[in-house]
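Rotation project, supervised by the postdoc (A.L.). Task for the rotation student: set up a whole-complex structure prediction and record inputs and outputs verbatim in this book. Inputs entered:
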Amino acid sequence: MSESPLPPLAEHLTARSTAAAMRVQQEALQAARDHLRSLGFQELLPPLIGPVTDPGGRGAKALDVDFYGHRYKMMTSAILYKQASLRGFPKLFYIAPNVRVEPAETAGTGRHLVEFHQIDVEVAGATRAGAMGVAESLLTHVVDHVWRAVPETLTELGRDRESFAELLAGPFDQVTHHDAVAGLRSVGHDQNPDGEIDWAGEELLSHKAERPFFITGYPKGSRGFYDREDPDNPGQLRNFDLIAHGGFGELVSGSEREADYATIVTRMRESGENPAKYAWYLRAAREGIPGSAGFGMGVERLTRFLTGLDALWQVSAYPKLPGVATP
Amino acid sequence: MSGLTTMAAGFPEEQVRERARTGAAAAFPPADTYGAGVFGADPSTPLDDLDVARLVPPVFMPRRLEKLIDLGREPEHTDVDLTAAVGGFRSTLPLFLSAFGSTRIGSRELGVAASAQAGRLGVPMVIGENMVPVHGFGGSPILARISAYLETVADGVGGVVVQQSTEDADSEVWNLVYSSPAAAPLLESGRLAFELKVGQGAKPGLGGMTVLDAAEAARLADRFSLHDVFGTDARLRCATPGTFTEEIVRQQIRFMRNNFPRARVWVKFHPGRDIGRAAEVAWAAGADAVTVDGAEGGTGWAPTAFLRHVGLPLAECLRRIGPPAGCLLVTGRMWEGSRVVRSLALGASAAGLGRAALVAVAEDPGAGLLRLAECLALEARLLISALGKYAPADLDADDLWWPGTRAADRVADPVRGG
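Outputs recorded:
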């Protein structure tokens, strides 16, 4: 375990910047709920543990829980439950707590916390474009609301309304993963074309932009088995990330989802998963889960973007950094 | 037993009677020998094509002249540089320590002793699958073996490779290792790799097998499929081999590269008939090494039918792969210099010591593997210099001859199996 770069918790909880960040976060959550409900979404409270969870990527591990002798996992995301809920709740969202034991090397990125929250949205029958539209309108609404509700707090934190003008004017730009990789390689950044945009690459792109933008069509092998493969472009996924401008990086990951049972099983193998442990989810898929699209917007990342604070731990009341043992 | 005797000469009457007495248990070697030793192909199985090949030094040696000019004196066998690039690591010898399974013999003191000696040698070490589901991560030999290796290995050489089976994936072995402080020195020095195990030589097409006593069987019942084949309390533990297609192999490799960007990626195949295509797919997807596990034995358990009759011989695998498009590693009955040098001549970059390493550390836990490698390295230097060459990478198919065949006919045209 590394030594903690964080202040003692009592000090952090009484810091002026923590109070300001929590005021902004509270307004952001209120605005998100209002906006999604105005679009006809139903809020559900998410599960915390289950026999399986989102297998995730980039080396993040799920925490094990002993559940009456069964090996359960803390939710790294509730994606599987979102899909399973669609028949009863075709437009749903959670404000979901998640736990991901990220590699210790991510402690210094300023963008990773072990405990974090997502505004987790899913829409039955939606396409990627539909989900991107919801994400864009949600972010725009939240930014507009916090600048109306707590402008003095944002100003005190050093934020300038001007730096959100391009965002509020919309629409957001889009770039394919392929073009984003080519752009990075053209400026000498050695980006792996078969994988995620790495942290350094994402930061480069984020600094160059004037407003948030979407990256679409990540390659298979970079994301979970539930992101749908593009039938017109095999090897590419019908997914997207929303990247904030100003160096704040990824706020949202989303996709159209696989709903076909045989495709899901095959994709599980392609990502090295053992289908047997997903028994309950595969049974639901065999019985038929609707096609859908959705996304997760990181609450702490959103708050950091709004407040302009340096590191993600500053916008969490009870931060836990990867590899650092804190209360 | 009735008094019937068969009159047909050559009819395996005793084997039939054994099956009649013991049923399914007769499909395996005697269960009471399990875990105490290593096993392998039946001695009655003919030598493979690699053993039949002879190393054939030429009379005229232009490479020796090059070396002579370079040194300004006549080259000797000690001038052979055995340093090798092995799966993204630098190795002092064209060797690596192969995986031992989760059995008693492979996973306890001998495994730790072998790790310390592999570290001292400066050769990469592979840690086998199914350790964590069997022992848990904290209690698994993985951490003990990594720390024994790190204590002895010099800077800049060697590396540690960790396998993960389907059952291991449930325990997230790679994630555990990648975020473990014990492995941090390996990650920081670029000496950690993960190996995707697609198959194994002892039983191509099947997963790992071990024999468990009643208590162990009860403990592992929720993680593995267990079978009553011995007619006793002992149970046969079967891990699944996993399902692979071209796309599954390709994407799993990409997933590994994406999720563990600071680790190297190794892929191990059983000697499958489509090994040429399999190796091609793995290298194209970015594998740093492809290991072909020759149809031989191991430390686990295998049905005798597999040891005798299943899988391509190693030489045929190398022929089907042809000139390798990446780092090619081989294992299977490697213990002395000539089989290793013949493998290198057929395109391999290094050979893995498995059972031989275990036997060597059993002979002397302090230095058995060091001495085995010392002897092998001397043989390799003598053989390679006799061919008028001074680096393993200079070896090629012209250095080999098979009775009755031109070497070119054996190796020049890679055959794509299917």
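Student's summary: The two ends of chain A are 14 Å apart (CA to CA).
Supervisor addendum: Residues 91 and 162 of chain A are 34 Å apart (CA to CA).
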